């Protein structure tokens, strides 16, 4: 989501909410009686505020947000509400409840909650990920955010509701510990002991994406890193983390420390685990403080092992741009960490969506050098909201060879950078590329100044020196065309090449 769009939508939502409250631009005053409601969440479960929770002695946290709202998404990504829910909700001590309510009934729809882009307002991402608590889509029939209910004039608007008094207290963007403190002012939350959560994380050598660890060879040794978070009412001073293959322990790591509630332990890494595609793997917390964890559902993480597809050394890379192409770029690196292919940033429309390269497909043909190798793909976004706003059939990045598709991934909202190790591997053999696989080439390179072009479409070429100065331009070069740079000094230059479906930067060396 981009700043100017956020500002416009934020203003529109504010005006809309103000109209609903007939000029009253204040949220519910602290100490107000909580309006009752009965609503069905996105999973089909019915929730009655009073009957199911407040009357049962359970205090409640409500977050009114909008799927397009950047500050809402940033707060969501802190996982503060999720942490509070795991500690004191049904998976923990069951003393409280948490609701996320998508409160923009004008500009959003159910699909936006899952990260799909609507015709009116783009979504920041998939709001269901990392949200164990119920998610409710507000509607005109429910009208939860309006003046007659929760008086929501901006997003996010958050309330805590005390079970003892049934009254509200503003709680915008509080941490999990602050939510606990706010509710403790009227109801003491007890919690449970030895209660934690284990999650797998990526490292410099091991990528964990879409619940899978990727490898380039069967039996490849990987270090599997985890984060341990404490939801219990006692500190975690010791824990045992194990990796199991088909139910048998194949790796162990002991944690010792003094982990407070809602804190993450430093990375706990089980080292040197041989992985095989097709087997069943879990990583588990066998004990916390010498006891069985309170909720074992949160301390066992399953993962898949995916062996990279094999390609010959001729590849076609297709980049499916999103609505903000000037912000996205990508790289392919070999096992030595050398960038062997790259693309972007593309032509956009300043800070706005659109531009010449928005929602298009950019194609690049490459001959990878060397013997068999394992390759890394890096996705980048300069704004920090990933690749997720495309309106065409969005595939993100697709890499094919004569063997077919060897890697394909639509990364979504990953922040500024996502590195995928073991994305694909090569045989070290060059194929005989056809036109579809070999879109573009410049040869010979190095050269004394004459450079020839192999291209399946007309391209424009701009050559710059290492200071960024443009030293040569040509338009409409077709297959077999040449350029003469013999009048330039010896050295290295960069050629920016662009066609209808081709965009690449090529290093030119004049000897």
Automatic annotation (TrEMBL):
SUPFAM superfamilies membership: Thioredoxin-like (SSF52833)
Pfam assignment, any one: Por_Secre_tail
UniProt keywords, alphabetically: Signal
Signal sequence bounds: 1-19
Domain Thioredoxin, chain residue ranges per copy: 28-188
Protein's recorded name: T9SS type A sorting domain-containing protein
Taxonomic placement: Bacteria, Pseudomonadati, Bacteroidota, Flavobacteriia, Flavobacteriales
């Amino acid at each position: 989501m981009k700043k100017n769009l956020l500002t416009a939508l934020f203003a529109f939502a504010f005006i809309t909410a103000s109209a609903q409250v007939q000029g009253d631009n204040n949220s519910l005053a602290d100490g107000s009686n909580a309006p009752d409601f009965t609503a069905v969440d996105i999973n089909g479960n019915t929730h009655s505020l009073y009957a199911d929770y407040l009357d049962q002695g359970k205090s409640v946290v409500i977050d009114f947000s909008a799927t397009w709202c950047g500050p809402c998404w940033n707060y969501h990504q802190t996982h503060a509400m999720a942490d509070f829910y795991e500690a004191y909700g049904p998976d923990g001590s069951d003393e409280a409840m948490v609701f996320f309510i998508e409160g923009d009934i004008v500009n959003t729809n159910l699909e936006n909650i899952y990260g799909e882009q609507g015709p009116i307002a783009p979504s920041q991402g998939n709001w269901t990920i990392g949200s164990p608590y119920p998610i409710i889509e507000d509607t005109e029939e429910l009208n939860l955010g309006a003046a007659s209910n929760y008086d929501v004039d901006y997003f996010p608007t958050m309330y805590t509701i005390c079970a003892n008094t049934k009254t509200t207290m503003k709680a915008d963007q509080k941490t999990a510990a602050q939510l606990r403190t706010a509710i403790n002012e009227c109801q003491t939350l007890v919690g449970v002991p030895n209660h934690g959560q284990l999650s797998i994380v990526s490292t410099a050598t091991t990528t964990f994406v879409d619940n899978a660890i990727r490898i380039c060879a069967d039996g490849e040794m990987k270090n599997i890193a985890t984060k341990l978070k404490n939801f219990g009412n006692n500190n975690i001073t010791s824990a045992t983390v194990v990796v199991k293959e088909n139910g048998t322990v194949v790796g162990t790591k002991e944690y010792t420390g003094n982990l407070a509630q809602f804190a993450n332990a430093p990375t706990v890494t089980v080292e040197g685990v041989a992985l095989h595609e097709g087997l069943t793997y879990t990583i588990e917390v066998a004990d916390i403080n010498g006891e069985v964890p309170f909720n074992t559902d949160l301390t066992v993480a399953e993962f898949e092992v995916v062996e990279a597809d094999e390609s010959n050394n001729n590849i076609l890379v297709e980049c499916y741009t999103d609505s903000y192409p000037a912000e996205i770029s990508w790289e392919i690196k070999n096992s030595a960490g050398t960038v062997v292919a790259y693309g972007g940033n593309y032509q956009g429309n300043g800070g706005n969506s659109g531009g010449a390269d928005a929602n298009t497909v950019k194609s690049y043909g490459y001959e990878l050098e060397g013997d068999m190798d394992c390759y890394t793909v890096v996705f980048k976004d300069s704004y920090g909201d990933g690749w997720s706003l495309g309106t065409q059939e969005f595939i993100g990045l697709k890499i094919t060879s004569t063997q077919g598709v060897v890697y394909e991934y639509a990364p979504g909202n990953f922040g500024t950078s996502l590195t995928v190790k073991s994305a694909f591997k090569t045989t070290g053999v060059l194929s005989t590329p056809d036109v579809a696989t070999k879109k573009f080439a410049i040869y010979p390179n190095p050269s004394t100044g004459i450079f020839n072009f192999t291209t399946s479409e007309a391209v424009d070429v701009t050559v710059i020196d290492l200071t960024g100065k443009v030293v040569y331009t040509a338009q409409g070069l077709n297959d077999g065309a040449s350029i003469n740079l013999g009048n330039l000094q010896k050295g290295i230059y960069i050629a920016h090449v662009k066609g209808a479906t081709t965009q690449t930067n090529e290093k030119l060396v004049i000897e």
